[in-house]
Amino acid sequence: MNVALRPAAPAFDVERVRAEFPILGQLVRGKKLVFLDSAASAQKPRAVIDAFRDAMETQYANVHRGLHWMSERTTDAYEGTRDVVAGLINARDRTEIVFVRNSTEGINLVANSYGRGVMQPGAAVVISEMEHHSNLVPWQMLRDAHGIELRIVPVTDTGELDMAAFEALLADGRVGLVAITHMSNVLGTYTPAQRIMALAHAHGAKVLLDGSQAVVHRRVDVQALGCDFYVFTGHKLYGPTGIGVLWAKSELLDRMPPWMGGGDMISSVTWERSTWANVPHKFEAGTPAILESVALAAAIRFVQGIGYDAIAAHEASLTAHALDRLAHVEGVRVLGTAPDRGGVVSFTLANAHAHDVATLLDREGIAVRAGNHCAEPLMRRFGVDSTARASFGVYTTHAEIDALADTLDRVRSFFA
Amino acid sequence: MFDDVRDLYQEVILDHGQRPRHARRLACYDATAAGDNPMCGDRVRVWLRYAPDGSVAEAAFEGRGCAISIASADLMAETIRGRTQAEIRRLFAGFRATLGSGDPAPQPEPADRDALERLLPLGGVREYPSRVKCATLAWHAVLAALEGDAEETSHE
After folding, report:
1. Which partner for A36 in A219, A318, A390, B82 could form a disulfide, CB atoms 3.0-4.6 Å apart?
2. A353 and A273, same structural domain?
């Protein structure tokens, strides 16, 4: 019998992945580092570290300026990252990729350029109750400076968007832009992008997705999503700090005025007036994050080398394991029970404040985030001042989650 | 397990953190102020009632926060009682020296020795720089109350 054997996908070998991250060999307070704070910022693989150093050692000058070999090569590398990013998120055109410092700057760019330059006073922006402050404060500032109304989609007890309320907020047709997280940094919830897009577009609103967390855990295809703007940051994607990405549809970028002025973003300058460079350079004033762009490309290739299918499967398994283990630690309450979620779990422990929990975990080498996670309104929504948050990356192991659960049980006894 | 955090979470801190003695509103008070640490979400409000000589006759607080911040607020309410504004400032300076923040304290005044001894268990935070502000939050609120400063305070 000739049974076609399905070619085995290369098995995900977490130990092989971990070997790529030098920092994971560090001892913390004499204990093995258990790094469960990747949602704040991820650790860096050797490929990223090497790319950063190699660029400084072999290939560095300013970009878009020097008519010399080093500058041309560096420009090629910087612009090459635009292609790598375009491939990562399936942008239709490389010129739709704008480099910014981080997601926060990407959102501020949209608020200041699209918000002030394209949206008219009296229009509304819709955000949700589960936004990071970076996707909240820029819109408050736009509201106060430009007469934009700010509307908030409530979050249900399960930690999901209240889609009926969302639809109601769109009903009067005044919403120009919906700016919503693609995956919550607190609840781990993936928002229903397709439904958001369908509803928003049916009511004439553009959609910005904050992909800071989402792009780390699953493949993002901006054309399939159908969104209008997408932002993410490099440092959560195993890349360097100081570089992030704003993607927007070409026709939107073309209509948007520049936000910051300076070198590199102009076409010509006279005392009377300046004219702008084409997109994306119109939005990239000043010397950009050159080294970081090279390292970002290395990070993206690293992620693609593992593959999003393997990453998503590994992290789904980790998250299920974490939810199961934490459910069996007395006194632990996990925020949000959305079925569609990524590798972020926020929780409280009865009788112990999140900071005390984090300090005790830290004594065992376990790094978690504690606090309001830059999402104060969401904390209030769930009636807590702060939570501890464990978040997972490609290098996280099931044993590390066991260590977290076991140690939490002892933390509970300590404060009992 | 956790033996090495006993320097931070001494019994007196766990005790006052979980069973504070002075956690209540004062129905009659002469001054009040709130302290807020937006970085971690800790909040405290203190109430003071003055004696005729201007010293603090009674202090109380309400707060939400970690064991360190609640224990510190409780021990603060206990130790500032009977002290004048100047004496409370001096005591706070001595306390901050215990925490390894602020200026190193000169030899403490004899009148402060017992109170500083009482506050000494909080000195464990000196090994945890990010937690020093937990221990000082209520004190900053008291200073604001003493100054009649209605603004929310946030320090360190």
Report:
1. A390
2. no
Chain B positions touching A137 (Cβ under 8 A) are none
A240-264: average pLDDT: 96
Question: Which of chain A's residues have a Cβ under 8 Å away from the Cβ of B3?
Answer: none
Q: In the structure encoding, which two tokens stand for residue A241, read together?
A: 């700090």
ipTM of the complex in this document: 0.84
Spell A42-73 as b/e; 16+ CB within 10 A means b: bbbbebbbebbeebeeebbebbbeeeeeebeb
| A345-358 per-position pLDDT tens digit | 999 999 899 999 99
- pLDDT above 70 (res B105): no
Residue A227 among the catalytic residues: no
Widest Cα–Cα separation across chain A? 82
Q: Are residues A217 and A347 in the same domain?
A: no
In angstroms, rounded to a whole number, what is the distance separating the alpha carbons of residues A43 and A212?
A: 15
A346 near A187, Cβ under 8 Å? yes
In a domain, B152, yes or no: no
Partner-chain contact B66 A415, CB within 8 Å: no
Q: Are residues A342 and A253 in the same domain?
A: no
The CATH number that applies at residue A344 is 3.90.1150.10
Contact assignment for B41 to A371 by CB distance below 8 Å:
yes
Residue A69 forms contact with B (CB below 8 Å): no
What is the model's pLDDT at position B152?
45
- Say yes or no: A278 and A404 in one domain: no
CATH of the domain at B30: 3.90.1010.10
Closest chain B C-alpha to A330 CA, distance in angstroms: 18
Q: Do B68 and A351 touch (CB under 8 A)?
A: no
Q: Give the pLDDT band of residue B154 (cuts 50, 70, 90).
A: very low
The answer to whether residue B155 sits within a structural domain is no
Tell me which of A29, A133, A356, A411 to substitute to probe the interface with B (most B C-beta atoms closer than 10 Å). Answer: A356
Minimal Cβ distance to A363: which of B4, B41, B66: B4
Tell me the residue range of the domain where A63 lies: 49-304
Residue B24 is assigned to a structural domain of this protein? yes
Confirm whether B23 is domain-assigned: yes
Chain A contact for B123 (CB, 8 A cutoff): no
Token pair for residue A315?
A: 């992290």
d(CA A286, CA A258): 13
Nearest residue on chain A to B18, judged by CA atoms? Answer: A351
